[in-house]
Design goal:
Blueprint lengths: L23 E9 L2 E6 L2 E9 L2 H10 L5 E5 H6 L5 H10 L4 E4 L5 H9 L4 E4 L1 H5 L1 H10 L4 E8 L2 E4 L4 E6 H10 L5 E5 L11 H8 L6 E4 L5 H10 L3 E4 L1 H5 L4 H7 L12
Parallel strand pairs: 1-4, 1-12, 4-5, 5-6, 6-7, 7-10, 10-11, 11-12
Antiparallel strand pairs: 1-2, 2-3, 7-8, 8-9
Amino acid sequence: MRPAGQTAGQPEAAVSFCYNLSMEVIPAIDIRGGRCVRLFKGDFSLETVFSSDPAEVARRFLAQGAKRLHIIDLDGAARGRPQNLPTLERIVRAFPLPTQFGGGLRQMGDVARVLGLGVERAILGTSAVVEPDLVARACQLFPGQIVISLDARRGYVATHGWQTKTKVKAARLLEEMASLGVGRFIYTDIERDGTLTRPNYTALKELISTTLLPILASGGISSLEHLGKLRALGVEGAIIGLALYTGDIDLKQALGLQNTIKPHSSDLQ
């Protein structure tokens, strides 16, 4: 995909900082055992609990100005079926704006159920690798509501709650899912998730160059500068987790600057 303002034959390096008009900043709530937690690099043994009431966290994000919420059922991702639906219901009631939910959505009935609870977008990950036909049917039944999560380590997708390695390249999976009718993707660098380091700009740039479809970025986002660089790359949204809970990023400030922040002139590496 050619960045806005780039003409045919123009070197890519010359347009490293062409900005979207906007980039959505999306706070994340990960649920495990009914509590709001964060993991380090997807490791279930490295868990930090931030609240016993995820709905209250959602209300706090709403009060700070969030317009969308990203919710993951970690138990569901590990077990293959959503495990925290009562908690999801409470979050949806507490946050009466668009939400997106993933974690164990590997059956059509579960996809329909979470969308029926008021979730706007259903996020599928493992199903994209092990049962692409399910993804195709879901796209037909719920047009515009299916998002594929490309969760990768060193470019290769991991499934089943990030615990199973595959030989599937994230870029290849994106291409295959787009051909089935998927209209939106989330890219997470697992090795950076929960680390407060920085996003994988190189991987994101490569993915964005292959598609006109919107991509949301996740993993390693821990500063306003990171948000500026992501916006320059052309991502549709930035999903922020741990940095909001530690205070490394102030949500109000990030939301207020999401249409104006610009990165420094350093390379997007």
